[in-house]
From TrEMBL, chains A, B:
Glycoprotein recorded as keyword: yes
PROSITE patterns: SEMA (PS51004)
Keywords: Glycoprotein
GO cellular component, one term: plasma membrane
PANTHER family the UniProt entry points to: SEMAPHORIN (PTHR11036), SEMAPHORIN-3E (PTHR11036:SF22)
InterPro entries found in the cross-reference section: Semap_dom, Semap_dom_sf, Semaphorin, WD40/YVTN_repeat-like_dom_sf
Lineage, highest ranks first: Eukaryota, Metazoa, Chordata, Craniata, Vertebrata
Domain spans labelled Sema: 1-329
Molecular function, one GO term: chemorepellent activity
Protein's UniProt name: Sema domain-containing protein
Amino acid sequence: MDHLFQLESHKFERGRGRCPFDPSSSFTSILIGGELFTGLYSDYWGRDAALFRTMNRMAHLRTEPDSERLLKEPKFVGSYMIPDNEDHDDNKVYFFFTEKALEAETSTHAIYTRVGRVCANDMGGQRMLVNKWSTFLKTRLVCSVPGRNGIDTHFDELEDVFLLQTRDNKNPVIFGLFNTTSNIFRGYAVCVYHMASVRAAFNGPYAHKEGPEYHWALYEGKVPYPRPGSCASKVNGGLYTTTKDYPDEAVHFARSHPLMYQPIKPVHKRPILVKTDGKYNLKQIAVDRVEAEDGQYDVLFIGTDHRRGYDPEFEKCNTINHIAQGCLN
Amino acid sequence: MDHLFQLESHKFERGRGRCPFDPSSSFTSILIGGELFTGLYSDYWGRDAALFRTMNRMAHLRTEPDSERLLKEPKFVGSYMIPDNEDHDDNKVYFFFTEKALEAETSTHAIYTRVGRVCANDMGGQRMLVNKWSTFLKTRLVCSVPGRNGIDTHFDELEDVFLLQTRDNKNPVIFGLFNTTSNIFRGYAVCVYHMASVRAAFNGPYAHKEGPEYHWALYEGKVPYPRPGSCASKVNGGLYTTTKDYPDEAVHFARSHPLMYQPIKPVHKRPILVKTDGKYNLKQIAVDRVEAEDGQYDVLFIGTDHRRGYDPEFEKCNTINHIAQGCLN
């Protein structure tokens, strides 16, 4: 498939919600059926972070502005459409990002990695959440090493995410490359997630906060119908053909419960790779599944910010030891 | 002062509350005016952790059994008597320990370092807390490096504590040697605390938890008189000569509010020393204040668990490089 781009110099379009003001600010986008889904800071001051859907036939949609419950100083890392089943109306768009954790202890700051999710065909609410996502949910994506006394070492800063497609397009394998949030201890980990774990978290209980003095707890009350976060599709009973027809109660619940209670845990409940030698900053990941004589292997390609000619570490090693190999490994 | 110990083979005393059943279990003790103050696990199974006062004329006292709010799987590190003023009835005993943090996020485990404090002349309550400490308070002792985005790197596992005595016996300088609680990132930090910060935390607001769904918050209600944690002394008005006369309300409040809201922060709000090279496990600290020509220095002596003849790291370095010095530094 050859794509040929050319500049339509006579045509101008408003870029708000489609690309960030500051080209260096964090940004993710995906084009699905002519609709552009983006995660970006849409204003000049870099304060209004939101998930957008713009472009085509469908109504422009975004997350509510100034809602720290939805997105708190996020860094957008990736976005993908992953179908749940054969019904296209049930298609969901997943956003991978980090943000300040609202559910962490009040007196401390923390950054968590999140998976956020919307229905691709979301039309917003009718009386509430007008032109806002009415199906947005998010949860924590955990990448941690189990430790003594139940104290896990967390890698909370998502650097990159890669979807390894399988024969079943509903079940790609998700690879996350994570960094620590500490400026003293630097280390990287790669965690792998199955879609079954992702779906289980979103189909699980909601997190609930009764008031400012309360902590985020398991919501044990009645969940309205249609279940907040589910799409207007035949698979979901076909009772509703658009989220605009969802009962107020369901839209209101979705608005106040964007966070799921259960995080998404990686396969084997630990990373498949941990690097703490501090040699390189790991930035990007790609994965290739190969068949070998003795079975199937996933080959990880991990990119660093290392430029060979300019690495002072490399230079130093080379000068002192005259054994470059020893320093590079 | 030469102390001569000899075994009184004809005399037997009950050791409960004076020394642990298991000699390898964590233990701290200090003898003050014939009274033995201890922190230990007093039972055979190593479950009943408590702070005790035993021995002499005064009533035997302990922390309430089975109260996770007071001590949750503590590791006792040190104990010291530090006077607040000239009134001996106001003398306080400080216990340094680590424990599972009750105020951390509910879904995660965490270990915090604590300073606990009791009045040396505590007599317990009359109707409530009979033969239990009625003046016990504790707070978190923080040793952390400030980081990006307000995310600090914490050293939460206290290994050793040293009190550097100054001319003013009310104001020793406290040196803490800390380890991380992670099994992936190992590192050590030394933090210094002034008694003014310690007293400010104990004279500050109490932490309060309204119920299981709530988080620990700042207590803003009325504090009873005498202020819970204060001693029966002339300095405190002289209205009460024993904690047994304290009003029920004050004893009840002390029982339900053992935790202070504000942690104790180190001098300069950061460690004076951070070691992350992973060469040694640092176990003990002693400090000597010396006068040099260009001013006063605090010399840190830090003990490791390294035994020269048996260190495999040392062996390996020695064999490969023939430069032992390079490996030891």
